[in-house]
Structure prediction request, 413 residues.
Amino acid sequence: MDLHIIEERILFLSPFVKEVVVVIHDGYPFALIYPDFEALKTAHIINIESEIRWYAVELYNMEVKESQKVRGYKIYLEPLPKTKSKEFDIAVIKEQINNNKESNTTIEEEPDSDLYKALKSYIFALSGTTVLPSSHIELDLGLDSLNYVELFIFIEKSFGVYIDEVIFSKIMTVQALYEYVRQHQRHFNPTKIKWKTILDEHISQKLIYSPFIIFAYKILLWPLFKLYFRFEIKGQEHIPSSSCIIAPSHQSMIDGFLMVASLPYNILKQSFFLAFKGVFGTTLINPFAKYGQTILIDSNHNLKNSMQRTALPLKAGKNVVIFPEGARTRDRKLLEFRPFFAMLSKTYKVPIVPVVIDGSFEALRAGMLFPRPKKIRITFLKPINSDELSYDEITVLVKEAIESEIKRNPISL
Prediction:
């Protein structure tokens, strides 16, 4: 296997990869990646790990057979180690692959100010890990979109400093964030943030109800799926008549359409679907999304407004369909579940209906252009109530429910 070909292909696929070295680790290719942080800043991308994973590593993986796929990667904050002759130091790089733990003995000089202490304390509460001035807020501390909105609003309410994704994309270390807030600070009043207060703010956008159009989609899709995929639906009796969050697993690009076909019409006409603008906001697809009760979001821009728009159906006593993984699986295994749906459930005190979509991976896995006639089954599971649970506990329960059902009743393909 020529590892340099893999490196060249990843560099070609993503304008946000500056350096990449691929080595064999545990029998498979493993990539060490140094992003082009200046290009990321210019594009205002703040979810760097997701950008590198899905639009560099996984785009490459979609093109090749199993033995050539990159099975793991590590993102560097500094240029990759080099020898005196300016070549990549493969020996040092291989030593560092397994060295993913932070050093707890690291000592850095920190600003001696109440502002810095307040910022550090809040970021620690979000991340639960050691916070240093040099810490990259995403890549070192693991903050995600949900955390970003909380952090932005905390800074605005506590210090009178407005910050958004464009500003944040240029200052993604703790030290740089502190310096920006210090320079623009108007007051000092550390304030507790409540999600319900954030989500209940008035916004100009309204829900677009399209019951007849979405019914037409269902009438068209149901017989087509039944004939072509031997489409099977189970557990519809578990969907409550009251407002809820419907949380399916995500195996392919057709999963949203499968959900439209599987929901009873009395539920479907009260349901809105969360989707990424980058996929469903194109000129061709956007009209179908707009009049298909779809809420488009962008994970790098206007996050607060995206979350507020997603809450609109729940505030109106309706349902929202959210894929907790946020992306399609590339190997049939469930991806990490993101906690946004758990926050919405707890904030609005609505149950979550876990849903197993099984067989769509074989029918139309990532990289395929046309679906194959494989059997697809959708199973609605018993609702999960979030009243006394944390976001993490809710997320784990929903994922475990879906995993258990997949193991208990594997689909016969």
Notes: The chain has a mean pLDDT of 93.
